[in-house]
C-alpha cells in the first residue's frame, strides 16, 4: 500500500507543528528534529520529510513510535543522507498500518540498536523494509521475528534476511502457527534455511530468468538440477541435465546473477555445438582436462560469433594468478584466459604454442570438433616433458562458471589399461557421497552434503545415512533432512510363498524367457586390430602423425565390437507400508502379498542367470525414521531371501524419495554396464509428519531425476487399482507398469524388460 502523504505543496512542517501544539512534549521533539533536517538537507528536503512524518502521525502511530523514529534519525545523522530519511518513515508507516504501532515501535528500536551514531543508513533501511514487507504479507510473523531478531541478523545480512523471510512465506503461506514458529526460529526448517542463507548463493532465484534467456538465444531451455553436495564444486553436464551446485563458496551475492547466467549459457553452448562426446581411449587425466578446456574455448568462440555480448559476459570471470607459477592450475587458468581474450599477453612458451595451434585450427574449420583432442595430445605431451605434476582429483576448473568437463567424454570408451582415467570414470558416473570418518572431528557437517554415511551397525534402528529432501515450494534441497535406519529382517514361514511360486510355474517360465532375452550385456570395443568392422580413429590419427614425422606407423588401425555377456545390477525396493495391506484384485490377496510374489518370481529368474541382484523393503515413521529392511544383498544367494520376504509385514508410511535416494546410493557405485532400480509400491507417498499432499510426490520425482542423472534406469511396478496414475506422475508413464493381479504380471514385466532391451 502506498504511503498516504498529505497534499500540502508547501508548509507541511508548519502545518504539523500547529497540529501538535496541544501536545507540548511531542511538539518539542518534532521542532528539534525539523531543525536538524533543515541544517543537514535544507528547507526543501525538510518539507518532504515533514509530509512523511505527518503521514505516520495520521496512521495513529502514537507518541512512543514517533519518538522512536526521531531517536533513530539522531543516530543516523550526520553520517547518512537526509534525502533517505523519508524512506525510513514510509517503511515504518507500512509496519504501523499492517502490524500496529506497538510492533512498528519495537521494529524501529531493534533496527536502531544495530545503528552506530553517524553510521551508514543502507543496511538499516533494507532491514526495516524487509520487516515492512513481511508485515504487508503476514503481519503475524513480525513479532516472532523480532523475538529472534539479534540471532537472525547475526547470521545474515539484509538481502539474506529478505530471502529467508521469502522462504518462510513460501513454506507456510496459510498456517499461522507454523509461520510464527518459523519466524521465531522454533521451527527446524527455519534454522536450516537460515544456515543456507548465511553461506549459500541460490540458483532458484535466477532460474526463471535464465530459462527465458537460454530460450531466446539458443532456442531451448536448460534442464537444471540443484545438487546439495559439497564434493561438486563446479557445474556438471550429465546427459541432458546440468547439475548445479547448491552453493558456490567463493561467490558473493552481488556476483550471483552474472555467475549463474555465465554457467547456464556456457552449458547451452555445449548442447548447441558439442555434437558428440570425446572418446577417452588412452588419454591421461591431464589430456582429458585439456580437451575440456579447449572445447570450452571452441564452443564459447562459436557462440560469441553470433552474440558478441557473451564474450564480455564470460571474459569478466577470467583472472590471472597473482604468482605465475609453473603449476598446472596456473598454466590452465592463463591458457583459458588467453583463448578467451586475444589481447591477453602472458609470455609463457607452452601457452603461446597452445594458443597458436588452437587459433590456426579454429580459423581453418571451427566446426571440426576433432581438432580439440589432437591439440590436447600435443600440448599434453609437451607439458609432460616439462615434468609438471597434475593432481587430477584436486583439480578445479577455472573460471568458476565452467563445468567440470567430465560430461564431455564417452566413459564407455576407456582403455582397460588406462587406470588413471578409470578413476575419473567413477566420478563421472555418479556424484560421490561424502564419507564421514567416525574418528574425525565432532563438529557438525556443513549443510549441503548429499548424504552422511554411518557405519552399518547390527542393532535394530541403527542410523545408516542422512539424506536431503526436496522442497517444491522452496525449489531447493533441505540438507540432512531425513534419517535412514536399518531394521534387520525377521524370518517368516516360507511354505505359503513357496506354494504360490509352485502354482505360478507357467508364469515363472514366461518371466525366465523374458529375462534371458533382455539385452543387458556390455558392448565391448576391441581396439588396435589389423582387421575390423570400423576404423579406430585414435590409432589412425597416431598413424598419420607418424607418417608426417617420417616414422613407421602402427598398422593396427581397425577395431571390432562384440558383446561380453550380461552385465547388469538390479536393486528392487519393496514398499511394505500400511497401505500395502489393502486387498487387490478379485482373489482377495493384499498388495504386499502380490508384491512379495512378484519379487520372488523375478528374483528366481535373475538368480538363475547369475545377475547381480539385491532387494530391500522400506517404510517410514516420519523423517527421523525411514526404515530399510534388507532382504537380499548383491553377494547373497537368493534362497536366503525367501524367509525374509515371507516375514515382511505391512506397517507405517511411504517416504518414497528417501528410499529412492538410499537405493541410488547403493546401486550407483556398482561397476556394471546397466544399473536398474525397480520400485514395487502402491505408488502413493505419504508420512505422518507431512500435510502437504504434493510435498512427498515432488520429492520422489526429484529423487528419480537425480538417480537417472547418475546413469540409473528407474522403473516402478505399481500394485493396485489407483497406483498407476500416482506412480506415473513420479516415474513417468513409460517407466510405470501397473499390476492388479498375478496373472497380469508377465505382461508388465515384459513391458519393463522391453524398455531395457531397446534403450
From TrEMBL:
Residues 435-458 are annotated as: Disordered. Residues 569-752 form the VWFA domain. Gene3D superfamilies: von Willebrand factor, type A domain. This is VWFA domain-containing protein. The lineage of its organism: Bacteria, Pseudomonadati, Pseudomonadota, Alphaproteobacteria, Hyphomicrobiales. PANTHER family: NORD PROTEIN. It holds the Pfam family VWA. Coiled coil: none annotated. SUPFAM superfamilies: vWA-like. InterPro entries: NorD/CobT, VWF_A, vWFA_dom_sf. It comes from Ancylobacter novellus.
